[in-house]
């Protein structure tokens, strides 16, 4: 059985709730994952939400928990919907413990419930997000934030990688370079092969400007370096079909048709490379807010997370939807299995040589 750790996220948000609701799903419970967090916080979540929850919620007394208590004085300052340093310190400690146990070989992968970046900063942890902590603790400097999802209507798999992530919009054209895109495309091609079993992918690559610059009239990045970079990338990846730079507003039209069905349009790409956070995540969340899963690629282990955040506005009400957390757990299993099969194939091929 594949062993998974689940860090329970910010205790003032919906993380503990969606984790306990996910564990009420028999298919998730059968995986017997280990929750990394405070037993006391989980018990409190269960006691308060079970009577008013819209959905079944698992009793933490029956679950496997790596208990990391919060100092009782600090625990008293944790309240639903209140973003503060105590909650940020706790969620950071739990993530770190899950990663340390994974690095020690106890788990094959980590599923992380949502944290608040602002709460982390208040607690003195100056990371942009969980992605960067995973990468640093794993000792890798080439990693990416990808989103995957399986359409409940058509079964089509959505896969999108963000070339840049948590930076201000005005920095995007500065940070985006041919070298950065080389690294991101490399990660994406590897992920498609190793994690999704796609050896000859078609990848849609967005332009940066409206209409991909309209020949330089609406921006020059495409003309100056993006189109030349794509020509070189096509030579480097003869097994891949690289389409682009595609006008960003229309790039997702067939993805939407494939997601909602009833039929799949012809010529669908296997994956999308978006150049900045909202260029990728607005369409992904519009299509698949309750299904999409954030996965960090480039790590030596699998890491997934729901696509949503801490939802402080509804924390403590019992109405949070666990669907994306459930998907994050199933994707962690699926990605680990495909990766293991890939490794077996590589080893078998090496023995044949
Ligand atoms: N994986 C992670 O750790 C993520 C963390 N975040 C963090 O979460 C915090 C809040 O971010 P926001 O932009 O407000 O996004 P959010 O996803 O927390 O909330 C956006 C809206 O969606 C609703 N919502 C979110 N998840 C829901 C669920 N499972 N069921 C029902 N409704 C749900 C919320 O109530 C809110 O109205 C930020 O600090 C952000 O950095 C955001 C995305 C992912
Ligand atoms: N918008 C995606 C997001 O915020 C995920 O951040 P991370 O904590 O998984 O790095």
Automatic annotation (TrEMBL):
Gene3D superfamilies: Isopropylmalate Dehydrogenase. Pathway: Cofactor biosynthesis; pyridoxine 5'-phosphate biosynthesis; pyridoxine 5'-phosphate from D-erythrose 4-phosphate: step 4/5. The keyword Oxidoreductase applies. Substrate binds at residues 131, 285, 294, 303. Its cofactor is a divalent metal cation. It holds the Pfam family PdxA. Keywords: Cytoplasm, Metal-binding, NAD, NADP, Oxidoreductase, Pyridoxine biosynthesis. It catalyses: 4-(phosphooxy)-L-threonine + NAD(+) = 3-amino-2-oxopropyl phosphate + CO2 + NADH. Signal peptide: none annotated. Binds 1 divalent metal cation per subunit. A divalent metal cation binds at residues 166, 211, 277. Its main location: cytoplasm. Catalyzes the NAD(P)-dependent oxidation of 4-(phosphooxy)-L-threonine (HTP) into 2-amino-3-oxo-4-(phosphooxy)butyric acid which spontaneously decarboxylates to form 3-amino-2-oxopropyl phosphate (AHAP). Belongs to the PdxA family. PdxA2 subfamily. The active site is located at the dimer interface. PANTHER family: 4-HYDROXYTHREONINE-4-PHOSPHATE DEHYDROGENASE (PTHR30004), D-THREONATE 4-PHOSPHATE DEHYDROGENASE (PTHR30004:SF6). Homodimer. This is 4-hydroxythreonine-4-phosphate dehydrogenase. The lineage of its organism: Bacteria, Bacillati, Cyanobacteriota, Cyanophyceae, Pseudanabaenales.
């Amino acid at each position: 059985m594949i062993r998974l750790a689940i860090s329970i996220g910010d205790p003032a948000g919906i993380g503990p709730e969606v984790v306990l609701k996910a564990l009420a799903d028999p298919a998730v419970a059968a995986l017997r994952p280990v929750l990394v967090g405070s037993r006391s916080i989980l018990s409190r979540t269960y006691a308060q939400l079970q009577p008013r929850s819209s959905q079944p919620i698992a009793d933490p007394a029956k679950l496997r928990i790596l208990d990391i208590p919060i100092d009782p004085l600090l625990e008293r300052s944790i309240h639903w919907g209140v973003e503060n340093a105590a909650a940020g310190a706790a969620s950071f400690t739990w993530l770190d413990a899950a990663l340390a146990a994974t690095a020690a070989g106890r788990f094959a992968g980590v599923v992380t419930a949502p944290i608040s970046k602002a709460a982390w900063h208040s607690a003195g942890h100056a990371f942009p997000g969980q992605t960067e902590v995973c990468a640093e603790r794993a000792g890798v400097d080439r990693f990416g934030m990808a989103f995957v999802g399986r359409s409940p209507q058509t079964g089509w798999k959505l896969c999108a990688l963000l070339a840049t992530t948590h930076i201000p919009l005005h920095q995007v054209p500065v940070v985006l370079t041919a070298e950065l895109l080389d690294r991101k495309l490399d990660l994406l091609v590897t992920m498609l092969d190793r994690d999704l079993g796609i050896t000859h992918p078609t990848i849609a690559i967005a332009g940066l400007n409206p209409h991909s610059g309209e020949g330089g009239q609406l921006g020059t990045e495409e003309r100056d370096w993006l189109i030349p970079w794509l020509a070189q990338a096509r030579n480097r990846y003869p097994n891949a079909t690289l389409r682009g730079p595609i006008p960003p507003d229309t790039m997702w039209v067939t993805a939407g048709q494939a997601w909602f069905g009833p039929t799949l349009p012809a010529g669908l790409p296997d994956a999308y490379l978006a150049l900045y956070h909202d260029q990728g995540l607005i369409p992904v969340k519009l299509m698949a807010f309750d299904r999409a899963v954030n996965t960090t690629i480039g790590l030596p282990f699998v890491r997934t997370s729901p696509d949503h955040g801490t939802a402080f506005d509804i924390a403590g009400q019992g109405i949070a939807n666990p669907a994306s957390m459930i998907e994050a757990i199933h994707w962690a299993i699926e990605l680990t299995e495909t990766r293991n099969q890939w490794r077996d194939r590589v080893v078998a091929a090496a023995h044949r040589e």
